[in-house]
Fold Carbonyl reductase [NADPH] 1.
Amino acid sequence: MSKKVAVVTGSNKGIGLSIVKGLCKRFDGVVYLTSRDEARGKAAVADLNKQGLHPEYHQLDVSDRESISKFRDHIQEKCGGIDILINNAGFANANNIDFSYDFEENKEIIDINFKSILTIQELIFPLVRDNGRILNISSDCGHLSNIRNKYWADRLSSKDLTLKDILEFVDWFLEGCKNKTFKKEDIADGGTIAAYRVSKVALSAITILQQKELLKRNISVNSMHPGFVQTDMTKGNGFLSADQASETPLYIVLDAPDSLKGAYIWYDGKAVDWYDCNGEYYFKISTYIEQLVSADKKQNI
């Protein structure tokens, strides 16, 4: 009988690394730490080895189709399949929180945070075994309340949602950036970190479709907001350490009931209504700024 396998993308640091640590301690099988940068990934593995933890390593750049193909071939040959897949790799420009029409930067954010999942779905999902678990790490930026354009909020909340709807939503945003016709009012909180919000809303939406497609194989597919976490992406600010933030992802893939499927889950482990367009779930930039100010005050004391 083949060993069970868990894979975490973008896991050489931050939440991903903490999830790998937790899996190494609790998961009865092989755990793969992956990263875009091979040297950093191997350094992370070496550090875990010193702690008595022994994940496997493989290079994986989720924005590169060839890299994903090579990883797929490796898993197919060495392991035969995957039981747990955590799509954690993501990107945000922490130095630019205001709305930006910068097409190339916005496209890069969407390519890494959303478009990469489509390639992983095509190439890696077929390796996920029946009864497996897939978790897409989203954000509070990924809740539908981040979208204030009524047309798109209604279309994305349709029970007949299709991939075409999600792709056209993303294209609407990018075209608006390219032509400088996009309105900041169409995104919550004055359009701050708009590209990141659009990418994560698209990720949360595609999770719903992925669950419908994989339900017949009893594979659970969920997305989650991990909380405001102290990582490079937040410049070290946040309410949770990476280890604390890893607790809910580990619960979802290891302990959650089999009935938890197609949900959008808050960092406390509770499923919330992703369709609540008028809810207060959207990311508020004031929270981030307050943390920066607090951190500066502490440094100056």
User: Anything to note?
Assistant: The mean pLDDT is 92. The first helix runs from residue 14 to 26.
